[in-house]
Protein 1
Amino acid sequence: MSSQPVRIFDTTLRDGEQSPGFSMTQPQKLRMAQMLAALRVDVIEAGFAAASEGDFNCVRSIASEIEGPTICSLSRCNPGDIEASGRALETAAAKRIHVFIATSPIHREHKLKMSREQVLEQAVGGVKMARELVDDVEFSAEDAIRTEPEFLIEVFEAVIAAGAGTINIPDTVGYTTPGEMGRLVSQIRQGVGNIDQAVISTHCHNDLGMAVANSLSAVEAGAGQIECTINGIGERAGNASLEEIVMALRTRADHYGRQTNIDTTKLHPASRLLAGITGTFVARNKAIVGDNAFAHEAGIHQHGVLEHAETYEIMKPEDVGVQKSDLVLGKHSGRHAVSDRIKALGFDVENVDMASVFKSFKALADRKKRIYDADLEALVTGQAARGGPWQLSALRVVSGSGEEDASASVSLTHESGEVHSEESSGDGPLDAAFKAMIRATGLALRVSGLAVRSVTQGEDAQGEAEVRAQWGESELKGTGVSTDIIAASTQGLLEIINAASRQVNRQSPPREDAPARNSV
Ligand code: KIV
Ligand code: ZN
């Protein structure tokens, strides 16, 4: 078996982008391509140059600006498509033309209305034409999985003889199983006489939820390239997910014995960037990049992770670019996790009446889905949940169409009675409101994330906003719920502002009459 790294061919910007809900503008595609280069994918399929002027321009700009990966454009096996790909790729340092034609009987009869001989001739013609323009040509037998194996072998042998350096086996309709895929790759390795001159690739769709398993099975049988996408986006149920394939190969190196060139610490940022650009968030429980992938709420799990992370984690969060495991405090949390968080908040647990705090914690957790740092602090200090010192007493936002055109004016009232008012412009009303609020309090906070999701249904759905902000070395989180996204988000930030202000107060020397910090 090869010791070469498995090549990662990313088709987020082609197969992913062509699916409903995932279209991207040219600057967005370029931004995503920069991230894919930082991730160190081997090939970026930048688009289908002949599909539209927009697609052509996207491929051309990625070819001109991105260094590192090979830049690829898809083409049918006809002169117009191949020439468009060749022109769009002109400036790329490393370029590939990817030609395809369907080979299965159902596609030949109903879509192409072509015989086997005609398909074979067109496939070979397409590869030869592409080779006149570039040295690196990939051939895909669309719907390979439902193609007669002996015909597939005949086509692959002919296109390799014509100059294809990669032969791709697409499971276009997501129909195959891991066992079948492994056997097909072995059959191709044995049956295609000149297979040593080409890399075997797979391109699996996820209609039956087996795209990743099928791709990994192909690797076990000797495939050298996997086509996949960030967050598994792609036609219908999507393509094999890049992050899952890469982390399966890395985490189970003992089993697969193959690595990739991917910088895995960029997996989470790449997933977030794509979600932000397309406005489609990944499910919480999505492997590798979902919010819950490194979150633990059950008490037994939290205890285990605190003692030794490997008890419940097979990967390190920092290996995929997540700062640290998230011990979510809720009704399932145990005493260990609660006392650990109290310690992290700066309290001396030796002097906290943990039995009573834990009892109140459980009672609160029964009422509230998630317990945040501010709630826990309030329990320890005896303050009301989500208490001050700051209150948002006035907020006005105005939207605008250009950058920095939105503005906000806020007034925050401190428990001392002082009112701090500020105005700010921003890149959208929320950005302006956040800037004004932070400025009003004088805290060195930097908002690092915002996720909004609806928590009820219907036109007047309540939205929950989770705001994250960097506060020195730590990240603080706050939430707000409202039918108005701006109100929910500013509530979330206010919770963070109050948590940070209380920490500042704790760090300042205690007043003579103040109760000792450790005596709570
Ligand atoms: O799914 C498919 O068959 C494809 C090919 C064009 C590779 O996307
Ligand atoms: Zn596809």
Protein 2
Amino acid sequence: MKSKITPIIGLQWGDEGKGKGVARIASSLSKNDLIVRFQGGNNAGHTIWHDAKCYVFHLIPSGVFGRAQIHLGAGMVIDPSALEKETKIIPREVSFLNRLTISPHAILVMPTHLLLDSVSEKVKGKKKIGSTGKGISPSYTDLTLRRALRVGDIFQNDFKKRYTILREEHRETLKKSFNHNVKKEELKERENNFWKGIKFLQSLQVMNSAEIVIKVLKKERKVFAEGAQGALLDVRFGHYPFVTSSHTIAGGVSTGLGVPPTLVGEAMGIFKAYVTKVGEGPFPTELGGEKSAIWCRDKNFTEEKTKFAHPDPNSQDEFEQGVALRRQGCEIGATTGRLRRTGWLDIPLLKYTISMNNATELVLTKLDVLDNFKKIKVCTHYIINGKKTSEIPFDISREKIKCIYKSFPVWSGKLSDLGAKLPSEALNYVKYLEKTLGAKIIYVGTGPEEHQVVERYW
Ligand code: IMP
């Protein structure tokens, strides 16, 4: 087979703008092409502007507005109620159910998985990792415990019985391990929604991921695997334990779809012109000192109040730059509504994720967010134990890291108003990144809408 799957992978901590990238690619695809999700669940939040309206998808592939087939792959965890609700936000005139298929191997997220997720995070106290609370970790845990319920099970006669047995096991765990007694009322509404969602799932076309992928590849048509989260959240190669529970990297495409790795081609890597992160964990280039966004959030501070309120006056300047990135980039979690932590671009981390994914084509998003900055900074190296390095240490959270930065001048005017040509300062910045990262930047995002992109190499 000449055609190969192209993984579309976030190269940072998620929220790189993959949704917009995939939606743009999808607009050029035909009904014989395919976009699949291969991991994760509704912890993802993919924001797409379509016909001047903003949509946030959590489960449905971002190609929904195109003509290509869309598939929810075997490596995913699916909350049936969330999926059913999500389909309702798609305008009536967009016919997608005839293009949508789902793998029988995908795992079902149960109402008790959501409880296990939130209760277990709560008891961790300061050690929490900042889960989205969507039941992702408990449902993948059930997969490896070999007791999870899968989409294919919903067509079996004993599904309700198996559901009840597993729910009771979860209740037992909640009681014994977390001292949380689940009352019937606590579950009632969630369970009603779950069964509504199951009914909806039963109406969908079920198909093995490998079967649909190979069928499309044999016809030499295109297959894109839309990653969720980002490479630094990969369960094994991210900043463990501050990670999600699936393989978010290109390697996950093969196991998430049940296809041989030889069918997975070079990846398209998506990264923002700066860095954001939701949840806890190390963040070497974070602006504003120790976890400023978390500090703001915990103090219940609004953006306005935080302006002159950072407790450490020495980092006030950086703090304000971090706030400006958050404000100009609208950096609020699409799934949880949490303020995102913000920082400068981190080259050592990008090199790490580019090589891990074999990302040979890059998409740089949200460059316009830097419009009004006095200068742009990029971390080129770390200093760890007095040594300059660009290697990523085994456990980044245990190291004291000092960042070395390079500064770039900023263009005048708004990139979104400047059309298809980047001003020289922006172009220099893009060329520097290409040279340093060793890969082509094929698109540069200059605004949230699908058309606000500068295409290069065409
Ligand atoms: P979980 O996937 O809900 O278990 O959360 C684990 C970690 O991944 C937390 O730090 C979350 O904030 C983060 N996370 C999960 N999904 C996303 C995403 O789509 N974008 C950014 N961060 C995410």
